[in-house]
Write a structure and sequence with these properties.
Elements (H helix, E strand, L loop, with lengths): L5 H19 L2 H4 L3 H5 L11 H15 L14 H10 L8 E3 L12 E3 L10 H5 L5 E4 L2 E4 L9 H5 L5 E3 L3 H5 L5 E3 L5 E3 L9 H5 L5 E3 L3 H9 L4 E5 L11 H9 L5 E4 L1 H20 L5 E2 L4 H9 L14 H12 L4 E6 L3 H8 L5 E4 H10 L18 H4 L6 H9 L8 E5 L3 H10 L8 E5 L15 H24 L1
């Protein structure tokens, strides 16, 4: 679940400050002062000292400019130099996540530790149940020898006072494919050969040490250069705001986009093609078909479960179909997909119809930096030909529901929704590739709850679901009135 905390607030403040400087044409002139302004000497530091706090902010700003920590060759290079490179469109590292080593230094690779709740009881249950004799009683308190401890957790289960705590490394524990681990210096490193760009490590890190490298500069430059820049908004967007979708669309146009297109129109095309493909699968006697619109899932299959490849739909994602439609209308337009998803950056990079990807966080900061009040915006007409099912694609079960509605009555459609990629659900997927079960369509979404709970969302998932349900109901009602009139 997405929640608001100080690390997230810092990232959004940095985004807003940088976009304001871009808007005012002051990026290279004032960017070096951002760490000093946000972490003045008069403010109590978060880490050991104000200088480390400022260093962390520097590397987070580099990520917003599109650079990773590994792009730094000289620590004395000022931020304004990176800003110039970004504005000039210099080529950057292709990886989309970066670990800020200055911020990644507090988690330790120790799973169990004895707290001051230990009563030094006579039972010595922790010591007696340790299979490696790793627990000693010193000065009347239990202590764990981490050199021999195998992290089995039996001591924690045995303690009657709950005095033994489990200390996780949040990013490592959240990763469903074990793609992140500490190096010899205690810094987390992402293994790109394993990573599926799900963003769970970024969400889990309490220090905000894992960041996505943004394309904010590129999008801003494209708009300023006079290109026909089209914003393609993911179906999950409308749930992020309480204001009406019609006002939100107008607000996005105020940022300089020439047009705003709902990717839900591409979702309807995905539904049509995937329905046809599922029918062919069933007629050919194949056991099941899985969805293909979640790029984290398709990366999971490619890198970790190749036995599932024959069962993955060949239908393109809503993003790609929408991009093709936009390019058909104007081949020279620049397409910007706006979503809550990190993995869409990878999918977009492999396509030739999506130029840039912005996240909901980046869009929200952009709207804030421009001082746009969504509630005061005009209402732009929405595309009345888009189905409610297409607009509901972003929720877990949404893809399966859209297929069900498009199939003829009486079809033997038996869907299963994999709601979030976890170690457990991945095990279920592995098993499904070896035997056919009760289901002939498997919808897979990396995020719990679906795209509405993506790693770069700006609102809690339950609120997003409420907003989306309200907006879809209003859109459905408005469409019905328009038809009747």
């Amino acid at each position: 679940m997405i929640y608001f905390n100080n690390a997230i607030q810092t990232k959004r403040e940095l985004l807003t400050r940088i976009i304001k400087l871009l808007k005012n044409g002051e990026l290279t002139e004032k960017i070096d002062r951002i760490p000093l302004i946000m972490r003045p000497k008069s403010k109590h530091p978060i880490r050991c000292c104000v200088h480390k706090d400022r260093a962390v902010l520097k590397y987070k700003i580099m990520a917003i400019l599109g650079f990773g920590v590994s792009d730094e060759t000289d620590e004395l290079t000022p931020l304004r130099q990176y800003a110039r490179k970004a504005l000039e469109g210099k080529e950057k590292n292709s990886n989309f996540l970066t670990v800020v080593d200055e911020a990644c230094s507090s988690c330790v690779q120790v799973n169990y530790t004895v707290t001051n709740l230990c009563q030094g009881c006579e039972a010595r249950a922790c010591q007696m149940n340790c299979p490696k004799s790793s627990i000693a009683i010193i000065n009347g308190k239990a202590q764990i020898d981490h050199r021999t401890c195998v992290n089995c957790g039996l001591c924690q289960k045995a303690c009657p006072y709950h005095a033994i705590a489990y200390l996780s490394v949040p990013c490592e524990e959240s990763c469903p494919v074990k793609a992140i681990q500490k190096n010899d210096y205690g810094i987390e490193v992402i293994d790109q050969e394993k990573c599926i760009d799900c963003g769970k490590c970024m969400m889990a890190c309490p220090f905000g040490a894992i960041l996505e490298k943004t394309q904010v500069i590129e999008v801003f430059q494209a708009i300023q250069s006079g290109y026909d820049v089209v914003a393609m908004v993911a179906p999950a967007l409308f749930g992020q705001f309480s204001e009406s979708p019609a006002k939100l669309v107008n607000s996005i146009k105020q940022l300089g986009f020439s047009n705003v297109v709902e990717v839900a129109e591409g979702a309807d095309i995905t539904t049509q093609n995937e329905t046809r493909e599922w029918q062919e699968f069933v007629n050919d006697g194949k056991p099941f078909l899985t969805s293909s619109c979640c790029p984290s899932y398709t990366a999971l299959v490619e890198k970790h479960i190749p036995s599932l490849k024959p069962f993955v739909s060949h239908t393109l994602s809503p993003m790609i179909y929408t991009g093709l439609n936009v390019r058909k209308q104007n081949p020279k337009s620049k397409t910007v997909f706006i979503s809550p998803c990190l993995a869409k950056r990878s999918e977009a990079a492999k396509s030739d119809v999506i130029d840039y990807v912005l996240t909901f966080e980046e869009l929200g900061s952009w709207i804030a930096a421009f001082g746009i009040e969504i509630d005061n915006a005009k209402e732009d007409a929405l595309n009345s030909t888009i189905s409610i099912e297409g607009r509901g694609f972003a929720q877990s079960g949404g893809v399966a529901n859209a297929l069900k509605e498009s199939l003829p009555a009486g079809s033997a459609f038996k869907p299963l929704a994999i709601d979030g990629l976890t170690k457990k659900s991945i095990g279920l997927l592995r098993a499904s590739s070896k035997k056919s079960g009760l289901h002939n369509f498997i919808e897979v979404m990396s995020c719990l709850g679906g795209c509405v709970n993506g790693p770069c969302s700006i609102a809690p998932v339950e609120l997003v679901k409420q907003n989306l349900a309200k907006h879809l109901s209003e859109i459905k009602s408005n469409n019905r009135v328009a038809i009747e009139s």
